Fold this protein.
Amino acid sequence: QVQLVESGGGLVQAGGSLGLSCAASGPTFSSYVMGWFRQAPGKEREFVATISRSGGSTSYADSVKGRFTISRDNAKNTVYLQMNSLKPEDTAVYYCNAKLLSQKHWGQGTQVTVSS
C-alpha cells in the first residue's frame, strides 16, 4: 500500500509562485495515476490536476489551467505541482492522491495560503 507525504505549502502573496511535492513510499509508484486535489474552508474537496502513470498525459481543472503544472519523477517516487500566478482563491489544503483501479490513497495535506 502506498503512503503519501506532501510538502512545500506555505504563505505567498497573490501573483507569486509555490511548488508542492508529494513523496510516495511503497512499491510500484509508477503503477499509480497521481493527482492533486484541494479543499478550501467550508467547501468540498475539488480536483486540481492529474498525471498518467508515465507522465505523458496530464489534465487540469479549468480554474488552474495555464497557471499550474503537474509532473512526476518515477525514479524518485515523487509527484510535483508547480503553482504560478497564484490567486487568493487558490487558498486551500492541497492533497496528493494515488489511484490504481479501485484503490485511492491520500496524503495528509499541506496548507497553501495566498494573501491579497
About this structure: The mean pLDDT is 96. The longest strand covers residues 92-100. The CA atoms of residues 90 and 114 lie 7 Å apart.
